[in-house]
Each structure stands twice: as structure tokens, then as C-alpha cells.
Design goal:
about 450 residues, alpha/beta, Rossmann fold, Helicase, Ruva Protein, domain 3, 5-stranded parallel sheet, 19 helices, 16 strands, binds magnesium ion, Sigma_54_int
Amino acid sequence: MDSLSILVVDDEKAQRDMVCGFLRKEGFQVLGAISGEEALEILRSRSIDMVLSDFRMPGLSGLELLQGAKKINPETPVVIVTAYGTVDSAVQAMKEGAYDYLTKPIQLDELLQLIRRIEERQHLVREVKELKEKLLDRFRFDNIVGSSGKMQEVLSLVARVAASDSTVLIRGESGTGKELIAKALHYNSPRSRGPFIRVNIAALPETLLESELFGHEKGAFTGAAETRRGRFEVAHGGTLFLDEIGDLSSSLQVKLLRVLQEREFERLGSTRPIKVDIRILAATNQNLEEAVQEKRFREDLYYRLNVVPIFLPPLRERREDIPDLLDHLLRKFSQAQRKKVEGISREALALLLKYNYPGNVREMENLIERAVILTRHNVIIPEDLPSYLRESPITEQPERADTGKSLTGAVEQIEMQMIRRALEVHGGVQVRAAEELGISERVLRYKIKKYGL
Ligand SMILES: Nc1ncnc2c1ncn2[C@@H]1O[C@H](COP(=O)(O)OP(=O)(O)OP(=O)(O)O)[C@@H](O)[C@H]1O
Ligand SMILES: [Mg+2]
């Protein structure tokens, strides 16, 4: 494990140098700041594992620094140093979310003990993350986020049909991940080494689409200067993904039906039948049943395609996935943009958790990409989000309880468990429990009250 990076904030040079020197000797990465303002600058520009700040300073006080630090990254533990006898300020700091406090003069062994505990906490946080990932391994496909019950159902179906050659019809609103699922089906099938070929049916006019799909011989029509293989041929040995299948014209519906039945077709301008070994996947956001009723879509083709239907629920019906998706997309775009954007401020998160996402995951993706590009901090703040998110009336969502799954929640859970265990082990004797936990008795009492233990 890398050594902890610690930011020491104190306006008094002698005190700052003493603490910095001691911590450096102990092997930590140490940065000093002479004011709260400077400390916030540092917190915005790089990742810090712990802040140790004096309470009383000219300019920003330790308390204000604490509030600012929490905004930048709510996970960063902040320890406040108060003058002897000023318990009120310490209590205030704890209420504002300080991790702990020390009184002057700082006892170096006490400080060290505190840091060890923070190290342990970080270790646990990492373990919790890894555990969570392991749980998700059940039906995990690279890059697909979905721990909600609804998505787990989808992914278990994907896992079951991927290996077969059956035709799959993927349904769902725009932006729900239909193409992503098509790729997962291909890359988890025995055909994964073969090609994955996508044809966007809505993007091409009928005549072009026909030669795109079936290919043509030289001279088959004006402009056909060369013989060209169609997508059905190119996909040989792999998977052909027919996207936006609902837009297929009626004459091409007939031709496609034949390929599906006989796995055989001819290039335009040729009578020589070509046999291919392909698996067909199709997707649409249209109501195909209605199209069949209205005779816009052939019923026989519908049944040929709809062998295994997979329905992707809209994001608003699986809001539990929103936090994980935000996390995933933030990582994806901060990597792509080479920017160190590590989190989302509490206020921005509240907006993102509340939003209804009519454009589903694709819309969320656009929001996060834009925010990562715009932000000037290492967290996303409300100003980085489009104004319609900020101004939209706050509509209470029924399923908001799951925001408790955030990392902060997990850390508190761990802390609570550690305290409970220590109290049990020491038969409820607080002095001993506090000693084992490496915190002062006062802090322990505070936490017992906080967690209602
Ligand atoms: N569950 C998910 N986990 C991670 N990324 C996702 C998920 N669902 C969708 N995405 C991402 O959102 C974007 C939109 O997904 P995709 O293109 O598969 O949707 P679609 O249903 O085909 O949309 P459209 O109907 O607009 O073509 C993609 O970049 C995709 O990677
Ligand atoms: Mg699509």
C-alpha cells in the first residue's frame, strides 16, 4: 500500500515544520499549507488522504476549511487541532463531520495512532469495494453496470443465451444499452473470435441498404464499379447485428426472412447462392407488435426474430443503478479526458440522483462527459451540469432510499461495526474500547451517541 498523503495546515511556521518533519520521518507523503485557502487549492488539484488542520487561523478557519474540504471530497478525513480547553470548537468540528480532533500541544504518538486508524479505514474501504465487485461478478460483463434486480435478470438471460446460436431481439427505449447487450452476446459466445458486424438500418436508404447487406457484382447497377461483399458475407463466422430493425422496408423484410430461414442469399446482379454461418441479433425501440398489427412489419419475420426477446428497462425503472452508473461513467470519462476528476459533490449528486433521464444511460453519459470536460475542480459541482438539471422542479422520486449505498455510508457502517465489536470485546468498558480503537474516550462517546449504539 502506498504511504498516506497528509496535508498539514497551520499558519504558524514552527508548529507546521515540526509536525511535517515528524510525519515525513515516519514515511508519509507530507504537504504543508499556511492557510485554509492554500489548503483548498491543494485539495482541488490533487488527491490527499488526510487533512490535519489548526482550528484557529487568520482567513479561513479550520472549521471553514473542513466544510470546503467536504465539498471537494466528502471521503477525505479531516482532523482538527484545537487549543487546550476549547472543547466547544472541537465539538462543533465533529458535528461538521471532522474525523477526529487533537488538542494542543499535539502528542505525536497520539497523532500517529490516529493516522494508523485512518490507514486501516482506507484499507477497509478498499476491501468493501472489492467485495462488492466480487458479488457483482455473478453476472458481470465488462463495462456493463447493473446490480439492480431488473438488470441482473437481463444479464442472467444474456449469460444463458450468449453461448447459443439463437436469434435475439433486443428491445428498449433509446439509450438503454441495446447495442451494449448485443456486443455482450457476441463477445461471450463461441463466435467471439469471429467478426461482430453492425448494420444501422435506419441510417441508409433502401437501395443502398440492400447492396450493403447482400453485396453486389460488378456492373449490377449504375455505379457498381467493383464487386463488393455484403455485410452478411463479412459477418461469416461471427454475429450480424441489425440495429433499428423496425425501420426495415417491406421488400427487404421479405429478403431478410429468406436469409433467416435458409442462411442463404445472392449478391445483387448474381444468381449464385451464397451460404453463410452467422448469428443474427436485432434491436429496436419501436413497438413491433403494433407494427405487425398495422401490417408495417411482417408477422413471420417478427416470429423469426423474436426467438429470445430481451427487454431493457428504462433507467427510471431501475434507479438503484444510477449511483453505480455515475461512478462508472465518471471513471470512464476522466480517463478518456486525462483529467483527474474523482468525485461528485454532494449537491451535484443530489441533482443527478433526482433526475428522470428520459434519454436513459446515453443521456447520463452525455451529462457526465460534458461535466468532466467543463469542471475546473477534481469533483463535479452543480455548475458543471446543464441548467435544466439545476432548475427543474424538485420532484420527489419514490425510490430514493438507495442513495445510502454510497461509499460514505459504507464507511460509517464499518466504523459502527468496529465500535460495536470493540465495546463487546471489552464488556462495554469505554476507556478500553477507545484505547483499542485508537480514539479518545470523548470521541468514542460522541460516536456511540451518533450511531445510537
Ligand atoms: N448498463 C450500462 N452500463 C454501462 N454503460 C452503459 C449501460 N447501458 C448503456 N451504456 C452506455 O450508454 C450508451 C448508450 O448505449 P447503447 O448505444 O447500447 O444504447 P441503445 O439502446 O443502442 O441506444 P439507441 O436506441 O439510442 O441506439 C453507450 O455508450 C453504452 O456504452
Ligand atoms: Mg443503438
